[in-house]
Amino acid sequence: MDLKLYYKETCPFCKKVLRFIEKKGIKDVELVDIKADEANEKYLIEKGGMDQVPCLFIDEKPMYESMDIIKFLDEKFQ
Protein backbone atom coordinates (compact mmCIF):
# COMPACT_ATOMS: atom_id res chain seq x y z
CA MET A 1 0.00 0.00 0.00
CA ASP A 2 1.37 3.37 -1.06
CA LEU A 3 0.71 6.11 1.55
CA LYS A 4 1.59 9.78 0.99
CA LEU A 5 0.54 12.58 3.31
CA TYR A 6 0.35 15.99 1.67
CA TYR A 7 0.65 18.74 4.25
CA LYS A 8 1.90 22.24 4.96
CA GLU A 9 3.75 23.21 8.12
CA THR A 10 1.47 26.11 9.08
CA CYS A 11 -1.73 24.05 9.07
CA PRO A 12 -2.94 23.07 12.58
CA PHE A 13 -4.85 20.06 11.23
CA CYS A 14 -1.70 18.85 9.47
CA LYS A 15 0.24 19.27 12.71
CA LYS A 16 -2.31 17.07 14.49
CA VAL A 17 -1.83 14.27 11.93
CA LEU A 18 1.96 14.64 11.94
CA ARG A 19 2.05 14.44 15.76
CA PHE A 20 -0.05 11.27 15.61
CA ILE A 21 2.29 9.70 13.03
CA GLU A 22 5.31 10.59 15.17
CA LYS A 23 3.70 9.35 18.41
CA LYS A 24 2.77 6.00 16.82
CA GLY A 25 6.20 5.68 15.18
CA ILE A 26 4.69 5.16 11.73
CA LYS A 27 7.41 4.99 9.08
CA ASP A 28 5.33 3.81 6.10
CA VAL A 29 3.85 7.22 5.23
CA GLU A 30 5.76 9.45 2.84
CA LEU A 31 5.48 13.09 3.91
CA VAL A 32 5.04 15.64 1.12
CA ASP A 33 5.19 19.35 1.97
CA ILE A 34 3.10 21.19 -0.61
CA LYS A 35 5.05 24.41 -0.04
CA ALA A 36 8.49 22.80 -0.51
CA ASP A 37 7.93 22.32 -4.23
CA GLU A 38 5.34 23.82 -6.57
CA ALA A 39 4.90 20.41 -8.23
CA ASN A 40 3.66 18.93 -4.93
CA GLU A 41 0.79 21.41 -4.67
CA LYS A 42 -0.01 20.97 -8.36
CA TYR A 43 -0.20 17.19 -7.93
CA LEU A 44 -2.46 17.57 -4.89
CA ILE A 45 -4.91 19.75 -6.83
CA GLU A 46 -4.83 17.61 -9.98
CA LYS A 47 -5.21 14.22 -8.29
CA GLY A 48 -7.24 15.23 -5.25
CA GLY A 49 -9.43 17.84 -6.85
CA MET A 50 -8.67 20.58 -4.33
CA ASP A 51 -5.82 22.16 -2.40
CA GLN A 52 -7.05 21.09 1.04
CA VAL A 53 -4.53 19.62 3.47
CA PRO A 54 -3.94 17.32 5.16
CA CYS A 55 -4.61 14.85 2.39
CA LEU A 56 -3.53 11.24 2.64
CA PHE A 57 -3.22 9.49 -0.71
CA ILE A 58 -3.88 5.79 -0.29
CA ASP A 59 -2.75 4.09 -3.49
CA GLU A 60 -3.40 7.37 -5.37
CA LYS A 61 -6.88 7.88 -3.82
CA PRO A 62 -7.26 10.99 -1.62
CA MET A 63 -8.54 11.01 1.94
CA TYR A 64 -9.21 14.37 3.57
CA GLU A 65 -10.06 15.45 7.13
CA SER A 66 -7.49 15.02 9.87
CA MET A 67 -9.65 12.82 12.10
CA ASP A 68 -10.49 10.46 9.21
CA ILE A 69 -6.79 10.18 8.39
CA ILE A 70 -5.88 9.54 12.04
CA LYS A 71 -8.61 6.90 12.35
CA PHE A 72 -7.42 5.16 9.18
CA LEU A 73 -3.78 5.16 10.29
CA ASP A 74 -4.67 4.02 13.81
CA GLU A 75 -6.56 1.01 12.42
CA LYS A 76 -3.86 0.24 9.84
CA PHE A 77 -0.90 0.47 12.25
CA GLN A 78 -2.23 -1.05 15.46
TrEMBL record:
<dbReference type="InterPro" id="IPR004045">
    <property type="entry name" value="Glutathione_S-Trfase_N"/>
</dbReference>
<dbReference type="InterPro" id="IPR002109">
    <property type="entry name" value="Glutaredoxin"/>
</dbReference>
<dbReference type="GO" id="GO:0005737">
    <property type="term" value="C:cytoplasm"/>
</dbReference>
<dbReference type="InterPro" id="IPR011767">
    <property type="entry name" value="GLR_AS"/>
</dbReference>
<feature type="domain" description="GST N-terminal">
    <location>
        <begin position="1"/>
        <end position="78"/>
    </location>
</feature>
<dbReference type="Pfam" id="PF00462">
    <property type="entry name" value="Glutaredoxin"/>
</dbReference>
<dbReference type="InterPro" id="IPR050983">
    <property type="entry name" value="GST_Omega/HSP26"/>
</dbReference>
<dbReference type="InterPro" id="IPR036249">
    <property type="entry name" value="Thioredoxin-like_sf"/>
</dbReference>
<protein>
    <recommendedName>
        <fullName>GST N-terminal domain-containing protein</fullName>
    </recommendedName>
</protein>
